[in-house]
Each structure stands twice: as C-alpha cells, then as structure tokens.
From TrEMBL:
<dbReference type="GO" id="GO:0000977">
    <property type="term" value="F:RNA polymerase II transcription regulatory region sequence-specific DNA binding"/>
</dbReference>
<dbReference type="InterPro" id="IPR033896">
    <property type="entry name" value="MEF2-like_N"/>
</dbReference>
<keyword id="KW-0238">DNA-binding</keyword>
<dbReference type="Pfam" id="PF00319">
    <property type="entry name" value="SRF-TF"/>
</dbReference>
<keyword id="KW-0805">Transcription regulation</keyword>
<dbReference type="GO" id="GO:0003700">
    <property type="term" value="F:DNA-binding transcription factor activity"/>
</dbReference>
<feature type="coiled-coil region">
    <location>
        <begin position="119"/>
        <end position="171"/>
    </location>
</feature>
<keyword id="KW-0539">Nucleus</keyword>
<keyword id="KW-0175">Coiled coil</keyword>
<dbReference type="GO" id="GO:0046983">
    <property type="term" value="F:protein dimerization activity"/>
</dbReference>
<keyword id="KW-0804">Transcription</keyword>
<dbReference type="InterPro" id="IPR002100">
    <property type="entry name" value="TF_MADSbox"/>
</dbReference>
<feature type="domain" description="K-box">
    <location>
        <begin position="85"/>
        <end position="175"/>
    </location>
</feature>
<dbReference type="InterPro" id="IPR036879">
    <property type="entry name" value="TF_MADSbox_sf"/>
</dbReference>
<dbReference type="GO" id="GO:0005634">
    <property type="term" value="C:nucleus"/>
</dbReference>
<dbReference type="GO" id="GO:0048440">
    <property type="term" value="P:carpel development"/>
</dbReference>
<dbReference type="GO" id="GO:0045944">
    <property type="term" value="P:positive regulation of transcription by RNA polymerase II"/>
</dbReference>
Length: 187
C-alpha cells in the first residue's frame, strides 16, 4: 500500500524542510543519472538550495550540455538573443537606478547631501531616524537587562559559595580548637 498523496505546499518546519530537500535532491540526481544511462540521453540538472548552495549533474559535462542548449534555443533567426540582451540591459538599468536611490538614502541617513530635500522629505527622514534610534535604544536596554540578570545570577552564586566557604571555615576552626584542646589536656 502506498503512502498517499503529499500536499504540495511549503514545509514550514525548517528542519523537516531541509531533510525533505536533501532526500528529494538526492532522488532527483539519481533519476537524472538513470535517465542518462538507460536512455543514452544528454542530461544536465542544476539545483540551488535556499541557502544558495549549488548541486549539479551533467551526463556529458555541464559546460558541454549548456553550450548545446544555447545553440538550440538562442538562434539569431528569431531574435531571442537580441531580446535577451535587451532584457538584461533593462534589468541592469533598473538595478543601477535602485542602487543610486539606496546610496542617496544612505547618505541622507548619515546626514549628508540634505540640501536638495524639501521640508516634507526632511520630516520623513527625521521620523525614520527617530524610529531607528528607538529600536537601537530598545535593543541596548534589552541587552543591558540581560547583562544585569546575568550579573545578579553570578552575585547570588558567589554569595552562596561565600556562605559555604564560611561554614567550612567555621567547621575547620572548631575542629582545630577541639584538636588544640585535646592536645593541651593530654599534657
């Protein structure tokens, strides 16, 4: 009897998700290998994990298979290479614009290059900085509270240790006095 159908949705538990990824990845790599051997097919498989780790299989070598794929799919007759280049150019332009905006925002947050900003933009910047300052203070306070708790625990532990040492000292002192008394009474 089979296991039944598995509902295809993201596994929420991180550990279970990693275990499932590892098992299914290995199964997929095995199937790719079997397909290449049994059917004499040229197979290439590329997997990127959620952590960005690369797993790959190429029956005839990954580079050779990818070059063959490019020759088949990117023919100049249908202008797909030209369209691909144009798409990449547009993507690069968007990313440059985004990067410049992020740099400008960073300079503003550092108090630099504020001249071109109007009053409303300056007020928004001030709110952002106040929010960031509040979060930093909150985190600092949390760390200080945790450190104080640790110090209190250490203080209690050292106090207990001190009490134990005093009791031990008193016992030793009483024993030595008793020993002295014994020795002096024998004389």
């Amino acid at each position: 009897m089979g296991r039944g159908r598995v509902e295809l949705k993201r596994i929420e538990n991180k550990i279970n998700r990693q275990v499932t990824f590892s098992k299914r990845r290995n199964g997929l790599l095995k199937k790719a290998y079997e397909l290449s051997v049994l059917c004499d097919a040229e197979v290439a498989l590329i997997i990127f994990s959620s952590r960005g780790k690369l797993y790959e299989f190429g029956s005839s070598g990954m580079t050779k298979t990818l070059e063959r794929y490019q020759r088949c799919c990117l023919t100049p007759q249908d202008n797909s290479l030209e369209r691909e280049t144009q798409n990449w150019y547009q993507e690069v332009t968007k990313l440059k614009t985004k990067y410049q905006a992020l740099q400008r925002t960073q300079r503003h947050l550092l108090g630099e290059d504020l001249g071109p900003l109007n009053v409303k933009e300056l007020q928004n910047l001030e709110k952002q900085l106040e929010g960031a300052l509040a979060l930093a203070r909150q985190r600092k306070t949390q760390i200080m509270i945790e450190q104080m708790e640790d110090l209190r625990k250490k203080e209690r532990h050292l106090g207990d240790l001190n009490k134990q040492l005093k009791i031990k000292k008193d016992r030793t002192s009483k024993q030595s006095k008793a020993l002295e008394f014994c020795c002096s009474s024998r004389k």
